[in-house]
Structure formats: C-alpha cells, structure tokens
C-alpha cells in the first residue's frame, strides 16, 4: 500500500515541484497551486500525502420504474434524480465523441490530471483577470460527481463541490487513482451516467428522454452535441427556454471541437451547424400524482403500493428511509394491478355514482391464494387540485370549505391513515367463523325475535333496554327459529347476537384481527382490548370501521379455503442489476400466506354465504331467500358473499367471491359519516361486485365450491 501511495500521491507532488501545475482557479481567482493557501511546495506535498488514497463510490441514485401487472404499461416512476444506468455500447457514438470534445480533448492522453491543461488555464486566467478557462479533466469531474453522489451528510456534499484548493487537490489525487484501476471506457460510461444535464436529468438516459423522448443509442450528431454542451452550465445553455441562442452557440461550439478532433468530417459539421434545435420534450412522471391521465384511476392503487412499500423492513429501518430507497434504488417493480379488470371495475363503479357526487362508491378485487390486489376503483379523480371541488357535505362546515370530490388523494380504498367505513352486517362473518371454529355446526339454531335483550351492558340509547343492549331485526319476517344458513343468508341480527353470546364476543374480535383487520380509531382500539372485547356485543353488527382492501381480503381467505395471504400489490421487484429483490433469503414480492382457518371451517362458512347471493347452499336450506339474490342472477356462476348496511343507511357494502376472485364494494360519504347514502343506494355495491366479477371471469372455466364435512353441518 505504501508503494502505491507514493505512486499516486507522488505523481501529483512531482508535478507541483516541477512547476507543471502552475495554478488553480479558486473562487474566481487565479491562485498559485504550490502556495496552497499560504503553504509551500513541501507543505502542499505533505497535505497531499495525508489525503485519502481510495475513492469511495456508492451506487448513484437511480429511478425506480413501476409497471402494471402486464409488465409493459408504465404506471409511474419514483426518483429524486431521474437516472438510469446505460452501458457505453448502448449509447450513440456521437455522445461519446461530443462529451470528450467539449469537456476534455486530451482525455485519451493524460492519466487523470492534464498538467498542460492546468498550465494553459492558469495563463489564460491570468490574462483575463478572472475565470476564463477551467482545468478539470473528465476524470476529475467524475471524481467530483462520485464524491457528491456518495455524500452521506450536507457537509460531505459541500466538500465535494466547494471551490477550494483542498478540494481540487483531492480531486487530482483521486483522479490519478481512478485512472489506475479503471479503463478510459469505464470512466466515460460512469461519467455520462452521472453528469447533470438540467431539468432533473442525471445521466445520459434521462437527458435523452427529457429533451428528445428517445433512447441514448438513437441520438443524432446535433442532439448529442446539444446534450454534451449542457454539462458545463445546464441552466445557462438550457434549450427548453424561449431564447435558444446560448444553447445553439454552445451546441455549435461542441460540433467545432468534434471537427477539430477529427471525430466528424467537415461536411458533417457544416450540415449539423445549420440545423435548428428541434426538441421533443417530455416530463417523466414522478410519484403517484404523476400517473398518466389515461390511467388516473390507477393513482389510488399507486398510493396503496407506496403505503405498502413504507411498511416493508427490507427497504429500510423507518418508513422515511424506505420511501427514500424507493426514490433512489433503481428498482423495476411489476405491480399486481390488472389493467383489464381495473377497467371493468371502474366502469361499473362510475355507472352507478358519478365522480362529482359527495357519495363515494369504490371497489377492491383480490386474488384468493396470493392476496394480490388486482383492482382498486373509486368514483374520484386522483389529484391534489381541489379548486373546483364541491362544497363539503357537512353543513356545519363554513361555506368556503370544499369537500374531497371529485378530486382527492385520500386513500379511500385502503392503506394510509384512513380508518375506513362502518362495514355493517359483513362483520357477521367473524362471529360465524369463531362459532364454527368452536365446533358449533351450521345447524346451530336459536329462536330469533324481532328485538332481543342481550346480556351486553351498554350506555342508554335507542337500542337499549334499561342497562342492556337490545338490537332488532330490519324486518318482522325474520322472526322465528334460524340457523347459520338462514341467519346469515337473511342477515338476522338477533340470531347473530345470540351466536356471539354463545361463542364470546372476544373470539369474534380476535377472528377479525387474524384475518387482517386493524383498529384505526381510538374507540375501536379501546373496545378491541382484552379488557373490553368480551363486552363488545355490537361488534357482530359491524359498528367498527374497515377498509375495502381488508374486507375483500377477508372473503378471499374463504375463497382460498382458509389460507390467509397478506394483501400484496406487487408481482415482482428487481434490483438495478436485474436480480430479484430478497429479504431474509425470500422474494419480497412472493405471496405471504399461511393456513389461518381450517379448510372445513372455511368451507362451512362459504356454504352459509352461498345463501346470501341466491346461489343456494350445498348442505342445508337457505329458508327461501337471501339479501342479495341478484348477485348470482347477474354473475351466473357459483358465488358467495355478504351484504352490510349500517343504521339509517350511512353505508352500504357487499363482499362477494368465487373460487377465483374476491371483491368488496362500499357506498359512503368519506367526508361526513353522518351523511346518509339513502335506501336507493342499498343494492349498488351488490351489482358492482357481481358485474365486475362476471366480466373479469368471462371465458374462464367455472369452478365450484367444495361442501364442508358433516362435522360442521349437523
């Protein structure tokens, strides 16, 4: 190591002592290098000896590309600096010739520091009385870029770019070291991929895309010369401004330099200089807000993906660090969103509720057995611009307070901090699963009156009888003896309160947690605790909030016969080198599944859920009708599910599933939970789910549910 240090440091020191490096441009002044801010030649050489020998290079930030499930349709990109590494062989030859001609004509002759160039710059600057020429070689510039990109603190970033003699010395020494371990071609490739060209374009790939909407391999002579000319001063020579005079002069200067180096012919140079600047500008999308207008509805899915990414420990220690990694990591992400099914889902949502309505109607579709979220549609525009939004639906708000419609970026379908919406009777599924798991069969019967005096103590209110909670059914016709088939199919409240009492409310709450529900409001978190869950009688009627993603995934678990999979918005994630992203030796994008519920428990719940849709149970009688018989009539293949409304029709839900797909739709006012959706919207979610599943499964083979074993029937 000592001999190598003498080799690298000594070569610069010898240049100093020999007077070949005559001066440096420092903060606008010509300054004798040997003096080094008051130090003599010996001191300068000693300072050089004490500088770091090796250039520490961290991979520069690269753009992350996010695609739809087809792997071709770009959803958006994430970046701090738009950048993608391109091999030298994939660049136009004109790019390489132009950058050498404009920045370092003696690049192939020097060893990192061009002593003649430094001397020439010193003389020129002395005559000019200021800065007229620089002396940095391409290699020295690359060193500066590498130090900038590898900076871990603001101080390190400043030291990499500040105009001081110490910084220049450091660059020179490291440039010589770089030249000893990298070929000229490798240095050029790294330089071209690190240089800044303006308009947030770092590297030749981004510059080609932003200024000419093409790949670097396709750049012409004039285009390559213009881009190469930007490196010196991207703002001063910006060709996208109204006055292109400076950019044209700079481009033509580069062309002249290319001719002087014999990189092009005189005929080529003459023709190129006569050409006008013709740009084809493009602004690369950045983040979810930049999703293409053609696919604006994908913005809500993109936001869900981003929330998911922030929760993954594979990408950093904190959510902020993970998001930074998303913007710098250069990943290629293929998401789970299916453009075809998304198109169907959005169509059926908008057919029923226009975007300009204060009432939100949305739907999520999940793939059973993988947990992959393949569609997220809602009657909103994903946008920050609320200038033309309607008035807030809460009359208590000031007149100038706008609502979140039609434009919003709120996570209406899941992810983020929104609690969701009261899911009503869909929560009866948790009580039924807890009962089946406790070996209570589908035939378990209770006489279910119109109003039932429960054992749960509650505060005084309209549904109380003294100190007790007294729920009632929505219809007198539900009075009578019910079992799980009829109680679930007809959504008999007083049956399920008795079933919940039999099995224990806490078990129903824990079942919901096991199937992925999170408690996001203070009251839900309190009631779900061990001290309160056993007395949470109203839980079975869906007084807690849930998101469409959560509920769709609950019923996807039943479709997968009890196999629970975490909701997953990705199909694959690849590193910049093309390898799959791993965490603890596991693919990050792989489904995360386990058998949460016994197979026959899930089959039994499905048998009862078939009664809801009009499809009919395999092992029992549905009692003649179900709350959502139009679902099977619309879909025309085996289907199960559960509807849910809350008091006064504040929300209206339906969650349905086939063996292949599960979906959950809701109708609610996210701005004002007290705003009633009205009885006219009570069937909206049912039809949306049925129609979406019908279109999504068109041409697919019909699959049947498997009936449960006798143990869970009688």
UniProtKB/TrEMBL annotation:
Gene3D superfamilies to which the protein is assigned, alphabetical: Biosynthetic peptidoglycan transglycosylase-like (1.10.3810.10), DD-peptidase/beta-lactamase superfamily (3.40.710.10)
SUPFAM superfamilies per UniProt: beta-lactamase/transpeptidase-like, Lysozyme-like
Domain Glycosyl transferase family: 75-258
Domain Penicillin-binding protein transpeptidase: 364-661
EC number(s) reported in the record: 2.4.-.-
Taxonomic superkingdom: Bacteria
Keywords: Carboxypeptidase, Glycosyltransferase, Hydrolase, Membrane, Multifunctional enzyme, Protease, Transferase, Transmembrane, Transmembrane helix
Designated name of the protein: Transglycosylase domain-containing protein
An example Gene Ontology molecular-function term: glycosyltransferase activity
């Amino acid at each position: 190591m000592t001999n190598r240090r003498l080799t690298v440091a000594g070569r610069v020191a010898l240049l100093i002592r020999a007077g070949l490096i005559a001066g440096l441009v420092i903060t606008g002044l010509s300054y004798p290098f040997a003096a080094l801010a008051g130090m003599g030649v010996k001191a300068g050489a000693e300072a050089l000896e004490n500088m770091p020998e090796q250039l520490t290079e961290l991979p520069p930030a690269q753009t992350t590309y996010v695609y739809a499930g087809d792997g071709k349709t770009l959803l958006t990109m994430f970046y701090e600096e738009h950048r993608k590494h391109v091999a030298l062989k994939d660049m136009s030859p004109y790019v390489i010739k132009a950058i050498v001609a404009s920045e370092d004509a003696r690049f192939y002759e020097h060893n990192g520091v061009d002593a003649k160039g430094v001397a020439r710059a010193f003389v020129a600057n002395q005559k000019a009385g200021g800065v007229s020429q620089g002396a940095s070689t391409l290699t020295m510039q690359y060193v500066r870029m590498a130090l900038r990109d590898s900076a871990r603190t603001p101080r390190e970033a400043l030291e990499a770019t500040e105009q001081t003699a110490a910084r220049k010395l450091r660059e020179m020494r490291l440039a010589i070291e770089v030249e000893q371990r990298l070929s000229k071609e490798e240095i050029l490739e790294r330089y071209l991929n690190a240089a800044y060209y303006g308009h947030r374009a770092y590297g030749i790939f981004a510059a080609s895309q932003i200024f000419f909407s093409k790949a670097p391999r396709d750049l012409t002579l004039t285009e390559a010369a213009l881009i190469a000319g930007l490196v010196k001063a991207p703002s001063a020579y910006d060709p996208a401004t109204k006055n292109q005079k400076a950019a044209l002069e700079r481009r033509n200067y580069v062309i002249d330099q290319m001719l002087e180096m014999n990189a092009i012919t005189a005929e080529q140079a003459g023709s190129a200089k006569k050409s006008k600047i013709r740009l084809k500008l493009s602004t690369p999308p950045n983040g979810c807000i930049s999703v293409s207008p053609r696919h604006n509805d994908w913005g809500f899915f993109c936001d869900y993906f981003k929330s998911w990414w922030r929760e993954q420990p594979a990408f950093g220690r904190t959510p902020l660090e993970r998001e930074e990694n998303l913007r710098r990591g250069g990943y290629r992400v293929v998401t789970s969103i299916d453009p075809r099914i998304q198109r169907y889902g959005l169509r059926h949502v908008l057919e029923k509720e226009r975007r300009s309505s204060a009432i939100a109607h949305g739907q999520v579709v999940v793939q059973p057995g993988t947990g992959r979220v393949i569609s997220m549609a809602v009657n909103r525009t994903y946008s920050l611009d609320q200038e033309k939004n309607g008035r807030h639906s809460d009359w208590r708000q000031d007149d100038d307070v706008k609502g979140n419609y039609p434009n919003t970026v709120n996570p209406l379908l899941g992810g983020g901090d929104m609690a969701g919406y009261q899911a009503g009777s869909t929560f009866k599924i948790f009580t039924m699963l807890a009962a089946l798991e406790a070996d209570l069969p589908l035939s378990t019967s209770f006489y279910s009156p119109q109003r039932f005096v429960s054992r749960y103590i509650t505060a005084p209110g309209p549904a109380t009888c003294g100190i007790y909670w007294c729920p009632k059914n929505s219809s007198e016709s539900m009075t009578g003896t019910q079992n799980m088939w009829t109680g679930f199919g007809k959504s008999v409240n007083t049956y399920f309160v008795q079933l919940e009492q039999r099995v224990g409310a806490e078990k129903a709450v824990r079942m919901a947690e096991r199937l992925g529900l999170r408690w996001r409001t203070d009251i839900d978190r309190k009631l779900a605790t061990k001290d309160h869950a056993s007395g949470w009688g109203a839980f079975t009627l869906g007084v807690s909030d849930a998101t469409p993603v959560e509920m769709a995934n609950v019923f996807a678990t039943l479709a997968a016969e009890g196999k629970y999979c975490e909701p997953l918005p990705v199909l694959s994630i690849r590193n910049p080198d093309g390898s799959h992203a791993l965490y603890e030796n596991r693919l990050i994008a792989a489904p995360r599944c386990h058998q949460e519920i016994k197979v026959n428990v899930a089959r039994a719940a499905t048998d009862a859920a078939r009664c809801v849709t009009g499809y009919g149970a395999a092992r029992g009688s549905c009692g003649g009708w179900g709350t959502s018989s139009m679902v099977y009539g619309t879909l025309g293949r085996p289907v199960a599910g559960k509807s849910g409304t809350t008091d006064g029709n504040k929300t209206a839900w339906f969650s349905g599933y086939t063996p292949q797909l599960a979906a959950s739709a809701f109708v609610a006012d996210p701005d004002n939970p007290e705003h009633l959706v009205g009885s006219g919207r009570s069937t909206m979610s049912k039809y949306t789910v049925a129609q979406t599943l019908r279109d999504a499964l068109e041409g697919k083979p019909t699959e049947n549910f498997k009936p449960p074993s006798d143990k869970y029937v009688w």
